[in-house]
Amino acid sequence: MDSSEIPPSDRREEQPPASLPLPAAFLEFLGENGLDPALYSKADTIPRYIRLKPGTEPMVVTEIESELKCDLMKVSWLPDFYAIPPEIQIAGSMAYQQGKIYGIDAASGAAILALDVQPGDHVLDLCAAPGAKLCMLADMLGSTGSLTGVDVAKHRLAACRTMLQKYSLGDRSRLFVADGTSFSILPVNSNLGSMEAFVGIEDNGSIFSEWTSKRSWKDRQKSKKAKAAGSPHPPSTSEPELIYYGKDSGLVGLQKRYVLRPSTDAAACTSGYDKVLVDAECTHDGSIKHIQKFEFWGWKTLDRRVLNVERTGNLLQLQLGLLTNGFKLLKTGGSLVYSTCSLTVAQNENVVQQFLSKHPSAELLKIDPADSWPCRSGGIQKTLRTGAVHLQRQARLSGGDERLGLGHGHPVDLVGVDVLGAEAVGRGPVEAVEEPGERHEHQDHAQRRPGALALAGAEGQDLEVRQVADLHAPAVRREVPLGAELVDVVPDARVPAQRVGVDEDPRLRRDVVAHDGRRLE
Ligand SMILES: C[S@@+](CC[C@H](N)C(=O)[O-])C[C@H]1O[C@@H](n2cnc3c(N)ncnc32)[C@H](O)[C@@H]1O
């Protein structure tokens, strides 16, 4: 959504109130978890953060300041991060539209720094969508190594693809719709010994050619069949689905069966990922601005999606499952960051404790740069927490090789990075993400994908997908020509898929939605 195009009256309506009348059930949840409700009245003082694409000329800062009409305050401990006042909308700015800046909260930045990505690393982001951290990871990677993003929600992962493309960060990346608790595909080029056998000679559809957004004939047939059978979605499988790969991701020319084959535990030890980020699905209670959105969505939704006991129980299992599988995919000596945007001990320290009790080869490591971060200690030694406002914690764990029975531990690190005064993960520059229709998708997806839970909600980061009709009715329904890949799609507001700011996920009912239907006028 391009906020510059929303009439000022609408803009005001979208601003949540500074202090919220929190419902009893949420107050109870906070009480049970020892959290102070006063946290949620501070949203109007929490800055928003943006990150400048590395390499952006310093003089651009002045230009952005004059465009946004505010000062950009450099965050000394986070390279390329700037704080801006919370009420500033960036989505309408040229700097944003030209891909010079993106919205990402400071605590997310800390999680990525904690991962300490090095040139040549193979990096896995196991809960990647909507993709702010993925973009930063891609930036850190530079022109070597590889980045694999996984998320169980296809439409959210499609937003990651849009972001990677918009910021020209996708060349070394690949994106899989998959359950992160069982995903087992290793990085390419990590098993060179046997790779020759998998380099394709004839392209008969079993070899990766350059990625295109055009759907294959096979895919189109599948979705036609699904439609004919009365289902808006193609039948789901639990097989990972590759929805994007960049030209330098190493896939082009390889046989699909080589790239997509599941790995064994032993193979992961030697050929797994160097770095894994598990930014797990959580109750999002540490995201003050996210909680504020329930004022609009309805507090009953908060009950159902955040506080529901059954859901929370499942969530803890999911978090442990994601952490365990992420660890399994690390190569020996690799490291992992576990992070959530919940403030609860249950979803953070306890999950990590449980994990550690079952994985003796995993140890906590100290994250040295965190010494200069505005953090305080968390509940376990070497964990850090933020102050009153926001929590994000990272566990940094070594690759373990107990599966080989070698029995020696590697240094592991659990860091609760918490950023004093850093913003809660807040509304991204592109407005609200979770609209009623989207919630349906989450739930539907959860039913269709084993391991998936209905989401508590997006982090509100830079997700560029929205249902215009729901948010800003009346959206203009004038049609413009569709890109070839969108044939079969019946969107709310049609736009060419190539346009920046468009999510094209041909298999979902949400279809293709312009950021703002009025642009089509
Ligand atoms: C906190 S958000 C991740 C935010 C993201 N790292 C970012 O920086 O934009 C959690 C994500 O986990 C995903 N998720 C939930 N269950 C999952 C599962 N079983 N496997 C993989 N991803 C899952 C959700 O779809 C959601 O996008």
TrEMBL record:
Sample GO molecular function, one term: RNA binding
Xref: InterPro entries: MeTrfase_RsmB-F_NOP2_cat, MeTrfase_RsmB-F_NOP2_dom, RCMT, RCMT_subfamily_9, SAM-dependent_MTases_sf
Record-linked PROSITE patterns: SAM_MT_RSMB_NOP
Record bears the keyword Protein transport: no
Domain SAM-dependent MTase RsmB/NOP-type positions: 35-404
Residues that coordinate or bind S-adenosyl-L-methionine: 151, 179, 279
BP GO terms, sorted: RNA methylation
Ranges for region Disordered: 219-241
Cross-referenced SUPFAM superfamilies: S-adenosyl-L-methionine-dependent methyltransferases
Catalytic residues (UniProt): 341 (nucleophile)
The entry's keywords: Methyltransferase, RNA-binding, S-adenosyl-L-methionine, Transferase
A Pfam family recorded for this sequence: Methyltr_RsmB-F
Similarity remark: Belongs to the class I-like SAM-binding methyltransferase superfamily. RsmB/NOP family.
Protein name: SAM-dependent MTase RsmB/NOP-type domain-containing protein
